[in-house]
Amino acid sequence: MQNLDQQLDEIFAARNREDMSPTIAAFARVVEKNPGNARALYELGGSYDTAGEEETARIYYEKAHEAGLDEPYLKNWYLGYGSTLRNVGELEKSLQIFDEAIEKYPDSSVFQVFRAITLFSLKKHSQAVGNLLAVIAETGQGEDLDRYRPALRGYGEYIQGLS
Question: pLDDT for 89-106, tens place per residue?
Answer without folding.
Answer: 999 999 999 999 999 999
